[in-house]
Amino acid sequence: MNIYQEKYGFVYIWRDRKHKRHYIGSHWGTIDDGYICSSGWMSKAYKRRPEDFKRRIISYVYTNRVDLLNEEKRWLDMIRDEELATKNTTLESRKKIRYYNFTKVLKNPWHSTPDGISVIGEKISKAKKGKSVPCSPEKAKAISEAKKKKFAEKQEALGYKFSPEHIEKMSENSKGRKHTEEWKKQNGERMKQQWSDGTRKRAEPKITMTKEEQAKLNSQGLKNRWADPVWAENQRKRLSEAAKNRPPRSEESKRKAREARLGNYNNKLSRLGWGSKGPHLFSI
User: Fold this and answer.
1) pTM beyond cutoff 0.90
2) Are 42 and 24 in contact (CB under 8 A)?
């Protein structure tokens, strides 16, 4: 069998040189078909910095998918439990994790056996028959009409409306055309004039809640975040590190802060009815 022409199975291991972390997985296909992995955590890291990752094929399987899964399980069993990733981990505990894998338990997909392909695959094929891809002409027409209606409503809200002939003419004229610098400058001046004389108007913002309701919602969201022990611990560490790098406060800044605190305290006592000559009223 020519492995560069036929599909086959292989077990691979990725290495992240930045965090010294690995990922073990398997794939039925070819080594150059662009497949990366099935781990969401590692996939995000790979998209951000692919230059830090390197893959090595550690085993080939040419028989079937079941044998491939068994081979992958053999390699996963070599990982110690404390080296596996766990969800909702802290930044400190992640330093001890050596693998992006969350578990050593494998689930057998329906396409891993000939019976699954013949039974479930056939059901999926029958379910898809008769469905147009990407959509039927009727559906495409309905989508087009909806977009045209939305465009017309937008024109009406802005205070102007183009005729269908004008829209078609603009479409034809814009095909393959590049605007010159002179045209851009003239168009900019024209747009400024339209905004100044009221020809163009912004749509009124839709207010769905009052400022008090928005503040209450934001406060509740912040409380929910601090209720999460993992988020709270990470946030305290970030604030602590930021405070260490903060420059020392000047004497002028300390004086203003002290005056603000005393002023707030006096105002509070006044609201409580102590008066300007109360025994505990401070003066600055």
Assistant:
1) no
2) no
Per-residue model confidence (pLDDT) at position 83: 85
- Find out whether 109 and 64 touch, Cβ atoms under 8 Å: no
Residue with tokens 């977009």: 147
Q: What's the confidence (pLDDT) of residue 10? A: 93
CB neighbour list of residue 84: distance below 8 Å, 6 or more residues apart: 97, 99, 101, 102, 103, 104
* Euclidean distance between CA atoms 198 and 190, whole angstroms: 12
Range 18-52 burial, b when 16+ CB lie within 10 A, else e: eeebbbbbbbbeeeeeeebbebeebeebbeeeeee
Rounded to the nearest angstrom, the gap between the alpha carbon of residue 127 and the centroid of all alpha carbons in its chain is 32
What backbone torsions phi and psi does residue 12 show, to the nearest 5 degrees?
-125, 165
> 111: Cβ–Cβ under 8 A, 6 or more apart, which residues?
65, 117, 120, 121
Which residues contact residue 183 at a Cβ distance below 8 angstroms, ignoring those fewer than 6 apart?
A: none
Q: How many residues are there in the chain?
A: 284
Q: What are phi and psi of 28, to 5 degrees?
A: -105, 110
Task: Determine the Cα–Cα distance for residues 3 and 176; give it in Å rounded to an integer.
Answer: 45
Backbone angles phi, psi at 11, to 5 degrees: -105, 135
- Using alpha carbons only, give the angle 245, 247, 251 rounded to the nearest 5 degrees: 150
pLDDT computed for residue 282 by the predictor: 45
Query: Encoding tokens for residue 199?
Result: 């020809």
Span 203-253, pLDDT tens digits: 666 667 788 888 888 888 888 888 888 888 888 888 888 888 878 888 888
| Distance (Å, whole) CA 116 – CA 53 | 34
- How many other C-beta atoms can be found within 10 angstroms of the C-beta atom of residue 111? 13
User: Is domain 8-125 annotated with CATH 3.40.1440.10?
Assistant: yes
pLDDT tens digits for range 127-155: 767 655 567 788 888 888 888 888 777 77
pLDDT of residue 57: 94
